[in-house]
Amino acid sequence: MACTTGQPVVCVYVQDPATRREGAIGWWLDQSRRALAEALTAQGGELLTVEGNTPDIIPELVTLFKADTVLWNRRYDPVGKEQDTALKTTLGLRQITTHSLSGRLLHEPWAVQTGSGQPYKVFTAWWRAARELGAPGRCVPAPSSLTFAAWPAAVKALATKAAAIPAPTLPEGAADAAMDWPCTEADAQDFLKDFVDDNVARYSTERDRPDKDTTSRLSPYLRAGLISARQVWHSVEAAIEKNGAISENAWTFLSELGWRDFAYMQLFYQPTLPTENLRSEFNDMPWHDDAALLKAWQHGQTGYPLVDAGMRQLYQTGWMHNRVRMVVASFLTKHLLTDWRKGEAWFHQRLVDADPAQNAMNWQWCAGTGIDASPWFRIFNPIGQSEKFDPSGAYIRTWVPELRHLPDKLIHTPWKADAALCRQIGLHLGTTYPHPIVELKAARTIALESYKNLPARQKDE
């Protein structure tokens, strides 16, 4: 939109201490910033990276450049919303034109509401209403050329200062992420094309299979803004028009984009989503505080192969298959009775697609503490999930190589392997691979009793 003004543009990236991310997502966002800088250089310009509080540094730049218009993509998290409001107020008092634009979602949080003007609390009803709005607007085509404003000396000094700030690095053990996730808009488009051409037709039938490469793997690119949800939507919609036979599978995928919007709607109206139970009855849940069990879960040493495979994939690559995310989250919150916020924090540190809305919503969903959440009594059995969704153990063998020589019938329950087989394949249970850290049936009983005995539940009975 800035290009349509006919004026020279200044592209600004603010390294704001209030919103700076660490861990894998910090590294990923910095990689996307560098990719944007290279793309602008190819257009004959530069990305101005500065450091400071956004509501303060942007007005300073407006003065230095003598700018009369400021545009940005609006934000929905508490800090972002507060900063956007403060920036609009400050610039408005100076008669500077401001535009906050919708660049992240299919529909703004307030665009899909109940008949009484309230936000939806159930996804199926929200999705039905969202579909009635029709397809989201199309993205504005990228400009063929840009005219850039020259940088005054004072601006160059600000850029030099920001350049001295150490760049975020990948967390320990996550070196594979640099190879698995190339970071440009072109890479994002390649992932989208491959998905639409090869996998969207099988999505609803194979999306839960971690042993198959059927998911889009677009989540890091959506998180960093290297591709937009609207671009993805219209690409998939075009594929449906071309081949109606893929419609059911494709719409299942598009509903996942809907879940993303639904998460941002929750964050917009419930700013405590990442930190507080949305269902207050869980404020009295007697969560366990066992550091050893938490560490075993974090590092894929629980003794349950599917859980361990997922946690190791996360640790090494910064990503995990969505079905496995649900399994490991259920295991932590229900079998280990550990506060979901500890899992959410670990994911936010390790994921390259760590998203404040989706990460928090999904953890609250799995823990049963959020709106439209999985009920507490729905406890994923990691053995059953493993046998159903990784039947041959291919996923497990990839990430838990010490089990790779077990036959398929034992790959999900290695503790059932007899001593002779263990010796033959070099497996030493309790040494090279841990015994289960918790007994599933007993842990399930404790979890159900803990919920049943909540004070709020007692009042209802």
Characterize the structure shown.
By secondary structure, the protein is mostly helical. The chain folds into 3 domains: 1-101, HUPs (Rossmann fold, 3-Layer(aba) Sandwich), CATH 3.40.50.620; 104-135 and 184-269, Serine Threonine Protein Phosphatase 5, Tetratricopeptide repeat; 280-460, DNA Cyclobutane Dipyrimidine Photolyase, subunit A, domain 3 (Orthogonal Bundle). It contains 21 helices and 4 strands. It has helices at residues 23-42, 54-65, 78-93, 123-132, 153-163, 176-180, 185-199, 203-206, 219-224, 229-242, 247-269, 291-298, 305-317, 322-335, 340-350, 356-367, 382-389, 394-399, 419-425, 440-452, 455-460; strands spanning 11-15, 47-51, 69-73, 97-101. The strands form 2 sheets. It has a two-stranded parallel ribbon. A two-stranded parallel ribbon has the order 3-4. Strand 1, helix 1 and strand 2 form a beta-alpha-beta unit.
Short summary:
It contains 21 helices and four strands.
The fold-level CATH name of the largest domain is DNA Cyclobutane Dipyrimidine Photolyase, subunit A, domain 3
Structural class of the helix and strand makeup? mainly alpha
What is the terminal separation in angstroms?
58 Å
The CATH C-level name of the largest domain is Mainly Alpha
Biggest beta sheet attributes: 2 strands, parallel
Q: Assign the CATH superfamily of the largest domain.
A: DNA Cyclobutane Dipyrimidine Photolyase, subunit A, domain 3
